[in-house]
Design goal:
By secondary structure, this protein is of the alpha/beta class. Helix content is about 35%, strand content about 25%. It contains eight helices and ten strands. A six-stranded mixed beta sheet has the order 6-7-8-3-9-10, sandwiched between helices. The protein has a four-stranded antiparallel beta sheet with strand order 2-1-4-5.
């Protein structure tokens, strides 16, 4: 990891500065600022269509933005995209994997992208599949035959195999059964407790209020509220009401 390529100190996992993003004449992000740190489970919430997924798409480098700066894992996502992308694992709101592949082949493919050793791949993938109850027999079936929940589990495993410093999840519980959701919640908490960063968006306010260390609420293209739920534990109970009040009860 070359020091000259670093643009910020490593103690900030994700740093977004004055981020602007438009779709044609529609300005979605209007100078969004945010910092997320190692060792925290960070919640990023807002109503539908308000810019949560757009923010994540900019952070992971899948969408261009008009202006601003995004630093991920110490690297600028525009000037050092490959280095930045090595530092995080990402799970989309809709499972994104190759239906023509078998599950095991897909995991091998992802492992090859990160240049994982065969030993690390087998050890990490087996551990994660066991955690999420992704049956080994199913891994040798084509992904096209998987249920939505199984595809989501596969994507969760793929996102963590290389043990990234940052885990970015966009509505990760969609399509998962209750047992998988509970296991995922445990994994998210454990990951942060081991000094990693977990950045999650979710419509499940209860999940966010119970699990997250800090939470940001986005409205009108900016972060309009930021709470430390550990320092202000009463905010955990108040969060649903705060959320409704910000959007005027609509």
């Amino acid at each position: 990891m070359s020091e000259e390529n670093k643009t910020v100190e490593r103690e900030v996992s994700i740093k977004i500065t004055d981020l602007h993003k438009s779709y044609g004449k529609k300005e979605v992000l209007k100078g969004l600022n945010l910092e997320v740190y190692p060792g925290e489970l960070f919640g990023f919430i807002g109503r539908n269509g308000i810019g949560k997924s757009t923010t994540i798409d900019c952070v992971i480098g899948s969408k261009k933005f008009n202006s601003g700066e995004i630093i991920v894992g110490g690297y600028n996502i525009l000037t050092n995209p490959l280095e930045a992308k090595k530092t995080f694992g990402y799970v989309a709101s809709e499972p994104a994997c190759y239906d023509v592949m078998r599950g095991y082949d897909y995991l091998e493919f992802v492992a090859s992208i990160y240049k994982m050793s065969e030993g690390d791949f087998r050890r990490n993938s087996e551990f994660l599949c066991n955690r999420l109850a992704l049956d080994n027999k199913e891994l040798f079936n084509r992904i096209a035959n998987y249920s939505h929940g199984m595809k989501q589990k596969l994507c969760l495993v793929a996102s963590l195999m290389h043990n990234p410093d940052i885990w970015i999840l966009d509505e990760p519980t969609v399509g998962l059964d209750i047992m998988a959701v509970e296991e995922l919640k445990s994994m998210m908490r454990e990951y942060a407790d081991h000094g990693k960063t977990v950045f999650v968006t979710s419509h499940n306010i209860e999940l966010v209020s119970r699990l997250c260390d800090r939470v940001a609420i986005i409205n009108n293209g900016e972060v309009v509220a930021l709470y430390d739920l550990n320092k202000e534990p009463n905010r955990r109970l108040q969060l649903p009401k705060i959320f409704v009040n910000i959007y005027g009860g609509k």
